[in-house]
Amino acid sequence: MNVITVHGKVVKPAEMKLINLKGEPNAMAVFTVVDLGLPNQQTEPIFFTVNYPKDAAALIAEYLVEGKEVNVVGTMRQRFHKGPDGKKVPYSFLKADIVELLPVFATRKRKAEAAS
To answer: Per-residue pLDDT tens for 58-108?
Structure first.
C-alpha cells in the first residue's frame, strides 16, 4: 500500500481508545487533521481522521489539541459499518505509523507583545 504524508493542523482533539491488537490491549489515539494545502494547489480543505495505534499514543495524546501543527505518515484504510438502514457504510481513515508534533514558532507580532 502507498504511504501518505499529511502536514496539517489538528481540528478535533485526540480521544484515547483501548483496542485489541494481536490479542493484547493497546492504546490508540483518534484525532482529526485538516490539510489546507499550498496556495493555488487546492480550493477546499481536506479532513483526515487519524488512528494512531502505537504505545506512544498515550504519551502524546494530551498534546494533540486543536490548532497543533503535525506531520502524519501512514496508510489510508477503509472499514465498513452498518448504517441506520442496515446497509454497509464505508469509513475511511489514516492509520498513522508516525505522528510528529511540530514546534510553534513565535511571530514578530508575538515577540513584540512579549517584549512589552
So the answer is: 899 999 999 999 999 999 999 898 888 888 998 899 999 999 999 876 555
d(CA 11, CA 29): 14
Q: Find the Cα–Cα–Cα–Cα dihedral 95, 81, 29, 46, rounded to 10°.
A: 60
Residue 108 phi, psi (nearest 5): -60, -40
Q: Is 4 exposed, middle or buried (0-12, 13-18, 19+ CB in 10 A)?
A: middle
Q: 0.85 cut: is pTM over it?
A: no
The DSSP-derived string for 8-74 is EEEEEEEEEEEEEETTEEEEEEEEEEEE---TTT-SS-EEEEEEE-STTHHHHGGG--TT-EEEEEE
3-class secondary-structure state, position 113: helix
Query: Residue 113's pLDDT is what?
Result: 57
DSSP three-state, residue 107: coil
Cell numbers placing 6: 499529511
